[in-house]
Amino acid sequence: FLITISSESNEEADALLKWKASLKNHNRSLLSSCINDATNVSSKTSPCNDAGRVINISLPNRGVNGTLHDFSFSSFPHLAYLDLTWNGFFGTIPPQISNLSNLRYIYLGSNQFFGNIPAEVGLLSHLEVLHIQLNRLDGSWRMCTCTP
User: Which residues form the signal peptide (predicted)?
Assistant: First the structure.
């Protein structure tokens, strides 16, 4: 799969490399640098914003197996789009997912996640889409409409 990283952010690059090493079936992987294309920056499919920070991780239907436990959620404060659908991801969804404070779209459907939906999902105040169907998840979640 293709993971696009920015040479501007060593923390993001290191976090992606660590997570990639924990995954199975990643022998076709390729790392490349972000290309700042002003016409794609606003698109949810553009991997990086105009500052070269990762805003999109999209790996649908790539035959990837693994968990989210080695994914460093706090390393991606600008991530807005996460698509891991139709793979072999398993395990629980870590509560640290709430560290992705700018996340708007989560696509985790058609995997093998199990356990409770972490209550911390409700803290994602920018969340517009949560796609978690076709997993073995229990429970419910509530969006926090907290005001300062």
Answer: none
43: which residues sit within 8 A by CB, 6+ positions away? none
CATH code for the part of the protein at 51-138: 3.80.10.10
Q: Identify the DSSP state of 24.
A: B
Q: For the chain, which residues make up each domain, given as ranges?
A: 51-138
The token duo for 10 is: 């060593």
Amino acid at 110: S
CA 120, CA 69: separation in Å to the nearest integer?
A: 15
Confidence (pTM) = 0.79
Is residue 89 within 8 A of residue 68, CB to CB? The reply is yes
